[in-house]
Structures are given as C-alpha cells and as structure tokens.
Design a protein that fits this description.
It is built from no helices and 4 strands. The chain is mainly beta. The protein is globular and about 30 Å long. The termini are far apart.
C-alpha cells in the first residue's frame, strides 16, 4: 500500500511521518501536522486552539 499526503498549508511539511492522526473518543477525527500543529478535520484546515507539544 502506498500512502501519500498533501503538503501542510501552513509550513509545507510533506512526509507521512510529519503528520499524526487524532482519533477522539467522541468520534472527532483529525490529521495534525507534527511540525506546526496545523489541524485538518471535518471543518477544513485551521491553526491549533492552544499551544501544544507537536513532536509526540
């Protein structure tokens, strides 16, 4: 299987390893850029609501 991602709209990160999946317990799902924290979810792309450690 080949996995690819579009570059991050905010910082340009383009490797699969630059992103992580968030699977919330209430059905909220998102892809988060590890480099800048930009969030891609059902409402589109947006910056994080608060400061977080994105290198997890």
């Amino acid at each position: 299987m080949i996995i690819s991602v579009k570059p991050c709209e905010n910082c340009g990160a383009s490797e699969v390893s630059d992103f992580r999946e968030y699977d919330g317990c209430l059905g909220y799902e998102a892809i988060i850029c590890k480099k800048c924290g930009y969030i891609y979810d059902h409402s589109g792309a947006h910056s994080p609501d608060k400061e977080e450690n994105f290198s997890e």
